Amino acid sequence: MIETSFFYVFALMTLIGAIFTVTRRSAVHSAVWLVVSLLGVAGLYLMQAAEFLFAVQIVLYIGGIMVLFLFVIMLVNLEQAERQKQFHGQWPLAGLCLALTAGLFLWLLSRGDLRLPPPSPPPPAGAGGNTERLADLLFTEYLLPFEAASLLLLVAIVGSVLMAKRRIQ
To answer: pTM of the full predicted structure?
Structure first.
């Protein structure tokens, strides 16, 4: 019973945070609501016994990416962007996309069985934790994509520093 309650709390945090992220007029307020949404996702990871993903969500996404978002918000000239008319003529398209997505969602709900499969049994005690299995996969089978992602992040960091330096000069 308590696990179900926590699930609904974290799911509600994620959903409300996501809705407020896209509906707030202030970019800083949107970033704060995105943090709330990411905290909800982290809680859901923890409930699924994915401690490593929980820690990565907190440290990397909330701690790192959100700080980067806030730096970008502070560097971008928001006064000029606010003066421009936004979403001009895009509301009918957005409404059509919403209607199509809602229709697809309702169609899938009407034709499917809503029962969830039973949870998989926990791994044997000597098999190691999910963090150890993830590390083994990451540094053996997925080493090239991991290194490519790290290279892309390095390029993004160097690019953002160069852009910030040009703006100061």
So the answer is: 0.59
